[in-house]
C-alpha cells in the first residue's frame, strides 16, 4: 500500500469552525446551533473535511485537525489523565484513545484489543465519565490536553498519511518527550509473544 501526505492547503473558514465545535465535543446539531448553520450545512462541511483530511470518524477528524494545525491545539493540562477507578479500563485508556484517534470503528477497536463491544463501550463510557468528556470525539481533545495524544500519533488510514504541518515544530518542542508512534498498532496477542 502506498501512502501520500495529506495536502496542507487551507480548509474553508466554515469547515474550520465546524471542526472547532467538534473539538469542543459538539454533535452535528449542537455545532449547527452554535454556528448559526443548518444541520445539513454542518453535515456537508463534515463530509468535505473528511475528504480533505482523508479520515472518516469525528474522532479522527478532531485528531487530524490538531495534528495539521487546522484547529488550535489545546494547552497541556498540569495533571495526568484522570483514572476511572477500574484497572482494566485504566490499563487500556491510552490504547483506546490512540485507536479512536486513528479512526478505527468501534468494532475494529474492540477486535484490536480483543474485547467484546460491550467491554469496548465500557472503556469509552468510563473514560468519558472520568474526564467529563461530553462525547467520544471530545475524548480526543482531552487526550491532547493530557499528553496522551500528540504529534507523534500520525494517521495512516486509507491511502493518506497525515504529518504535522511544518509551522508546528515550535509547538512540538514544548510537548513532553514523544512516545512511540502508533502507526500500525499491535494486538494484545502480538504483545504477549
Distance between the termini: 26 Å
List the strand order in the largest sheet: 1-3-2
Residue ranges: pLDDT <50 for 5 or more in a row? 1-9, 156-160, 163-193
Structural class of the secondary elements? Answer: mainly alpha
Number of strands: 3
Structure in words:
By secondary structure, this protein is mainly alpha-helical. It has ten helices and three strands; from the N terminus they run βααααααααββαα. Strands 1-3-2 form a three-stranded mixed β-sheet, with no helix packed on it. α2 crosses α3.
List keywords for this structure.
single chain, 193 residues, mainly alpha, three-stranded mixed beta sheet, 3% strand, disordered C terminus
Question: Can I get a quick summary?
Answer:
With 193 residues, the protein is mostly helical.
What's the topology here?
Layout lengths: L3 E2 L7 H11 L4 H8 L3 H15 L4 H10 L19 H15 L4 H7 L4 H15 L6 H8 L10 E2 L2 E2 L7 H5 L14 H5 L1
Parallel strand pairs: 1-3
Antiparallel strand pairs: 2-3
Helix pairs in contact: 1-2, 1-3, 1-4, 2-3, 3-4, 4-8, 5-7, 6-7
